Here is the input.
Amino acid sequence: MLNCKLVYAGGDFSFVTPTSSNHKGALKIAKDHMIEEFVLNAKLLINGKEHYAINHEFKNNETKATGILEDCISLTVKLDENFFASG
Here is the structure.
């Protein structure tokens, strides 16, 4: 179970993931909320720590997340069906 908060201009969205969920589960909930609320840019905090910067482009209908890793290296992934389907 992860305590999450999606923070963006004009508001925020707090949620708790299911017990068996991992970061992918949190990213899926965040992505769905951003699309539903027309949010373009947000930061995802997990258990009080910033883990991802998320960007949604409505023009291309693409959502990308950049992970903020411990050693200051970032990794950007496209949050599409392939990402969520992979183990």
Q: What stands out?
A: The chain is about 25% helix and 45% strand. Residues 3-85 form one domain.
